[in-house]
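Quick one - first record:
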Amino acid sequence: MQVKGFSLATRVIHMIGFEIFAIVIFAPLAAFILDKGIIEIGALGIFTSLIAMFWNFIYNWVFDVWEVRLGKDRFNRSVITRCIHVLLFELGLFIVTIPLVAFWLDMTLLQAFLIDIAFVAFFLIYAFVYNWIFDLLYLKLVRKVSI
């Protein structure tokens, strides 16, 4: 069975799951590394998460449409395509989050830029792994329900 893309419900589940797992993993780690309160970092994480969910929804929908037009299947993405996918997503989010991090953590734009690079490094790996696992689980569930 070949599945070309996600339904709206699946896209929402993907997006919410991504953000929940991200906050649970990221907030304690970032609070410890930055020597900031978990509430301060958690609140920044939630606010950033809301921005990221909006961007995630729009970006992934556009990326899926682009892949379909090229005759590609998201569930058969190569490692290179997955890397391009996550790099472009993070670049868009990076542009928005630098001023937010500077404001929220009361630091200069340069400091926020450096902190955001570390955030992006974490999320590049996290997004790559999350999306790959999600696709694998989705295919297993779709096949299981279809049988």
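second record:
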Amino acid sequence: MKSVKIGELKNKLSGYLREVRRGEEILIQDRDIPVAKIIPYVPDSIEEQHRILIATGQMTPPKSTEPREEFLKRFRSRPAPKIPGRLAIQAILDEREEGY
């Protein structure tokens, strides 16, 4: 864990925050006495994680606001597609050849 005095922290705050984003913890000292610690933020919930991923462009929000349970119920009520077995097997083999 790094230790930094308040004056240095104020002068180089952006750099220290970059280190915290990478997982580093920073101990803040006032006249050599520890007074605070900056630690990486960890979201409390899945929803909060999603908001962060969306805000950073790592995830796209869903286009529908329909609750997941309702979507699954509607999806499962649809008839299953009828595909001949040989076509399904060939599709799987072709996909394996492509490396997916």
